[in-house]
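Data deposition worksheet. Section B asks for the primary sequence of the deposited chain exactly as it was used as input, without tags or linkers unless they were present during the calculation. Section C holds the resulting structure in token form. Section D is free text for depositor observations; keep each observation to a single sentence. Incomplete worksheets are returned to the depositor.
Section A, Depositor: J.P.
Section B:
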Amino acid sequence: MRASLLLSATMLTAVLAGGAGGCASPSDATGTGGTGNSAGTTGDAGTTGTAGTSGTTGTAGSTATCGPQTAPGPSGGANFPFPQHKLSPNCGYPTSCNDADVMTSWNTYKTKMIVNNGGGLRVQRPESGNDTVSEGIAYGMLMAVYIGDKTTFDGLWAYAKARRNGNGLMNWHYDANGGLVGNGAATDADEDMGFALVMADKQWGGYSGDANALISSILSKEVDGSNQLRPDDSGSTQDSNPSYFAPAYYKTFATYTGQTRWNQVADAVYTKLNQCANATTGLVPDWCNTSGQAARGSRYYYDAARTPFRIAQDACWNNDSRAVTYLAKVAAFFNGLGPTGIRDGYNLDGTSPGSNAGIMVFEGPVGTAMMAGKATYASFLLQNYTRVAVTSKSGTSSAYNYYNGSWGVLTLMMMTGNMTPF
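Section C:
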């Protein structure tokens, strides 16, 4: 139900030189690739300018260290203005990082990807005819709430609300002119929006109704009777997408809404995750069937690459031992390759690597997996952070596109302690 389901190796371009540290990148035909941009994004520069918090907080976060810092108090209507820089004792962080890297990356992303859409805003995919998917709206909402950009957050949420289906969930795909391309919801987008709304309610207040309604719709329509997470709202649980598993969110949902069943959903996704993952590498396929086997001919690819990030959230935020155990396998595998050795795709046993390097959706989440190992992978984590920061900030590399740009900002937020529950 989302763009990356359409990805195929034949749709990738040849490796191009460029990017962080001479990295190379594909043009990801799922709508997650390409570097093109339309004049429409330039027109949205005014929206970027409205985020006054962006200009001021970027300076406040100029310390080039990931040591503890005192978070700023409420200001400008935000209870948790950027940068919060909250370092969890459960995780390690790069020995040198800069909160301003996050702000620069956000401004680059916002200028290139977030455009006006009548009464709202949307995240466009320039490489796919400037279309929009619900996943992108959700990514933008997550970024905006942690940056403290209420104008952008409200504009993106307005776009999503106006495009909900009968289940109260956003249809997953619209063209550049607002035409419906893909019916039905995508669970990953919905849960990201739900979590973003919870954080918005804590950040600014006034979002509790929307947050509770959306989270209830997800539980009703995208979780089955045995607490298995469905990939969409079609009613089928035949295949699972491990990169949709967000146990840290579910614990937040349980506390925020009082719907304690969410804790059982978290337990269920860990059971499924371990069924789907290779016992040695921890790698999961994009799609996994009810028996725990790779489905739809998939392997560790552009969907699955997000999985370590979602599990790292639970390790860092909640110190869940299941998350730590899982991430230890992933971290050990990639540590054996080194920061420059990460490629865009693997068989679950780690063989047959893809041909492209410098891809942020692969590198960034690996960095977050290393965080759960604390000092064990300090050198790797620093190199990984630096590579992602360079590509994410500039937005000019062949490795920069909608999908990679999204994951560049999100993983930098995580690696600098600027993505933790308020």
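Section D:
Residues 1-63 have pLDDT under 50 and may be disordered.
The chain is about 45% helix and 5% strand.
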